Amino acid sequence: MADIIVERLFERERCSWGAGNRSAAGEARTAYIKAIRAADAGDYRLLSVFARS
User: Fold this and answer.
1) Least CB-packed of 22, 40, 42, 50 within 10 Å?
2) Separation of alpha carbons 10 and 8, rounded Å
3) Across all residues in the chain, what is the average pLDDT?
4) Is the CB of residue 18 less than 8 Å from the CB of residue 31?
5) Mean of the pLDDT values across residues 32-43?
6) Is the confidence at residue 18, as pLDDT, over 80?
């Protein structure tokens, strides 16, 4: 839902959310988990960067 809002209201591309397989072990999954943990602690910067990667 947030991707649609970003795309339509702010005229920006949808977030790719890492565009990788987050189920398989690898860099994308590691970055995603790190970003989620940081967001849980109140720091959303890594999640924002990951969403656009």
Assistant:
1) 42
2) 6
3) 78
4) yes
5) 94
6) no
Confidence bin at 42 (pLDDT 50/70/90) = very high
The Cα-based distances of 24 to 2, 14, 29, 30, 50 in angstroms read 25, 23, 7, 10, 17
Identify whether the C-beta of residue 35 lies closer than 8 Å to the C-beta of residue 28: no
3-state secondary structure of 15: coil
pLDDT per position as a tens digit, 24-34: 668 888 888 99
Q: How many residues does the chain have?
A: 53
Which residue range forms the structural domain that includes residue 28?
2-51
Alpha-carbon distance of 45 to 30, in angstroms, equals 16
Give alpha helix (H) positions in the chain.
2-9, 27-40, 45-51
